[in-house]
Amino acid sequence: MAFKTQFPFRLPRGYVDEEGNIHRDGIMRLATARDEILPLQDYRVQSNRAYLVIVLLSRVITKIGDHTLIAVDMIENLFSTDLTYLQEFYRKINEEGGAPKHHITCAKCQHEMDVDMVTGVLITEAGGSGQSGPG
């Protein structure tokens, strides 16, 4: 099995381009040390540290919808929900390794479980995966 370096994602709301088209599906690659160091030299990051995440995400996202050149202004124009999602996705694939997942609680039965963020498949407590769950 090959080492996985790229991970598909689906934005909760989506990037809206100049023509009003919504792009939700994308790909993020694993970050390199260079990806995390070079943005620190960017004048925007030096004047506003919060800008680091914008520059960093523009480096590691390789595709959003039809767009394969991800410019900083694309990340700037994401809805805050999507930016938060991408920050969490970045953290999951780069710091935790493996498939990124969300811990959820079933609204119907209150059972807690994990869901694979890439496939949407429920991950069982034993570490396997299954297609269905409670509720």
Any overview of this molecule?
This protein has helices spanning 33-37, 43-47, 52-60, 72-76, 80-96, and strands at residues 6-16, 22-29, 61-64, 101-105, 112-116, 122-123, 129-130. With 135 residues, it is an alpha+beta fold. The strands form two sheets. Strands 4-5-6-7 form a four-stranded antiparallel sheet, with no helix packed on it. A three-stranded antiparallel sheet has the order 1-2-3. Strand 6 and strand 7 form a beta hairpin. The longest helix has 17 residues, at 80-96. The radius of gyration is 17 Å and the shape is globular.
> How many domains, as an integer?
2
Overall, the morphology is globular
- How many helices? The count is 5
Mean pLDDT: 86
**C-alpha termini separation:** 34 Å
Sheet having the most strands: 4 strands, antiparallel
The SS-based structural class is: alpha+beta
Write out the strand line-up for the largest beta sheet, numbering strands in chain order: 4-5-6-7
Report helical residue fraction.
Answer: 25-40%
H/E element string? Answer: EEHHHEHHEEEE
Low-confidence stretches: 126-135
